[in-house]
Design goal:
Blueprint lengths: L7 E6 L9 E4 L5 E4 L2 H16 L9 E10 L6 H8 L10 H12 L10 E11 L3 E8 L4 H7 L5
Length: 156
Amino acid sequence: MVVEVKPLRFVIPGEPRGKGRPRFGRSRAGFAVAYTDAKTATYENLVRLAAREAGVTPIDGPLFVQVNAFFTVPQSWSKKRRASALDGAEAPSRFDVDNIAKAVLDGLNGVAFADDKQIVTLLASKAFGHFARCEVQVFPVSGMKEQAVEACEIRP
C-alpha cells in the first residue's frame, strides 16, 4: 500500500528574519556556552506557530523545501522607486537569503520534519512584496517532479 504524502504549504506573517550569529556566555560553572539570540529565537518560534496553525505534520524521507521571503518596501522611497522594487527591479538588502532559510528550517525542526538533514534540495528567494511574509513549501522528493514547476514560481 502506497501512502501519498501531500506537500506542506503555509505562510509566516511579518518581516522575514535571518538566522543570527551564535552568542557566547558563561555558565554558572564558568564554562563557555553558545546560545541563540532572542530575536532569532522569537522568529523560530513564530515559524513553529505558523506551521502548527496550518496543520503541518512531520514528513519522513528526503525533502525538497522552498522558502520565498517577501519584504515591504520602505515608506521613505518614492512612488517610482517603490513600483520598481515591487516589479522586481530591486532586491531587498536585509539579511542573506541563506540565513533566512536557516532560520525557517531551524524553526521547522521537529514540526515539518524530524531533522533538517532530510532536506536534499532547497530553493530560497527574497523579494519585495505588498506585505511582509515568508511562504514555505515542503515536498517529499518522491513525486516531486510534477510539482516542481508550480513550486518554483515566485509571486509578489
